[in-house]
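Prompt: Have a read of the protein record below and flag anything odd:
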Amino acid sequence: MMAHKNNHCKPAALALLLLSPLATAQEWNGTALGFEAPPDPLLGEMFGVRQWLNDKGFTYTLGYLNEMAWNGGGGYNHDSHVAYIDQFSLTFNQDLERWTGIPDARIEGNIVNRNHNDNLTAKRTQDPRTNFNDLAQESWGGQSITRLGWLTFARSFDDRRLTWRVGMMNKVQTFDQIIPCDFQMLSQCGGKSANSLTWNNWNVHTWGSTLEYKVTPFVTLKGGVMEQNPEAASRTHGWSWSTQGSKGVLLTAEIEARPLINGLPGIYNLGVVFTNAHQSDLYTGKSGGAGASDPDGYKTHNRTWFMYTGFNQLLTRHQDDASRGLSISFSMSLADQRSNYIHSVYAASLRYHGLFDARPNDWIGFGLTWFDMSKQSARNQRYLNEINGISDYDNPLYHPVAGHPLNGELYYRFRPVKWLELQPGIQYWHHPGGISQTQGAWVTELKTVVIF
């Protein structure tokens, strides 16, 4: 397919971009790409407390988010339901350089409290007999819980060109941060590295260490080694320092470029992830046949790979305001489909910041995501139906076979006041979960953000 042909050209295109004379030494400003500075908070200076903390080197962002989704039509279950989830998050940074003299030395932390555990995708949109490949509420975390997202030490070397980070970390601190998480649909939230299914987004920590090296002001090389722990998202691991449950390590490498093309900022990346943790094959048994009928169970692979890439590029600048304009983003992932039921994902989106002069801080966004589910997994589902003698999709024991879903979202975000964001939108799910027998679903959404 054409999408795969384009992927083969991606590394070469990225290399040409890095060497391009268009990547000049002008100032890079990512505001119009979605990298906005935090707005003025609701609580202001808190009678001087915030400034006192800042003077001591402690800076933080305290935020609240809720996401509501309503199944307006279609889907697996047509019964109307309004699903609601919310979270409080505290992300902080304690400067240590002023006391130690170590360049850029700091402690970084993140704590997240999630509530309500109300998932519209599981309850209405998708056939519960198949795996998730998308969510109508990207911040649904599987449980109501307060947990540590990360707690790390970082410092720099070589005149601040090299940054080292170590501790209980999350991948979002270093990797795949070229696209903002503004959409409410998970597949349009940020890049596609989470599709590896071997590490977690945002509020789940594992032990690791990473390095970032600025080859030029516009090009950064990144690498890391992180614990691969399938138990990391469990409730017992929420505040744990233990590595209990670890199965191996993740080795990650990424190149990130931030060029200016005709004076317009862009950000591009290419990353790979390898793991030596054993992953079960989705079809093959240890004896070479079907694993579902093999007395020794499914074959395991002692190394698997994953690749992700993408870009976020400003296309037009609104008059003379560099913070406003139209941008386009694309991200994709490609996984080892022997062990990953999400083989490949392709997501594209358009955003406009400040479309209307009267509302220069508003955003409008439209995105589409196409999935290719694992053929190895589909083969296993067909075999299970065959040996069980079931061909009727309505039979509760039938194993649905996932194929190629297509999901889309349109949103508009505005700020009635500086510290409040309201984002209504609409989603359409074609073949939810990749199951052709499931009717296409319309979902109405409302995302609310408060910065304290």
Summary: Residues 1-25 have pLDDT under 50 and may be disordered.
